[in-house]
Amino acid sequence: MVKINFDANLQINRAWGLGGIIRDSEGLVMAVGTWLVHGNDHALEAIAFVMLAAMKFTAECGFQSVMFEGDNERLIRMVKEGLIQDRSYLGLMVQEILKTKLAFDKCLFSFIPRTGNKVAHHLAQLAHSDPNMIWMEEVPLAITSMYLHDILN
Q: Is this model's pTM higher than 0.90 or not?
């Protein structure tokens, strides 16, 4: 099973910096991605969007047994419980997340406190300066020390 951490950054008006990291059971990096997309000021929508992007990225990498970890407890609960509240943008993204889940043999969702999601948080920040990048079996130089600190602790 691989674990995917994801996060969004809304520091720049109308731009979502998105980041995700896929690690194996030993914590070693398998793939990393940053994305920059036009967005609004709704953090929950940005987090749902990056979860969906991370799911599609993970599927494209060919992983089938996955756990997605994020630091937004509300979104994790919505996805785990299959809560599609309405036909809003957020509701449609949650619906798409639930459909995309079916592409995996095993797909779990887990809440992790922000302190355990630092690498993904920094990737989301990095997306504003290094957008739409993919790294396979390595991390961007800008977050190497953060990744190493995370893997050692």
A: yes
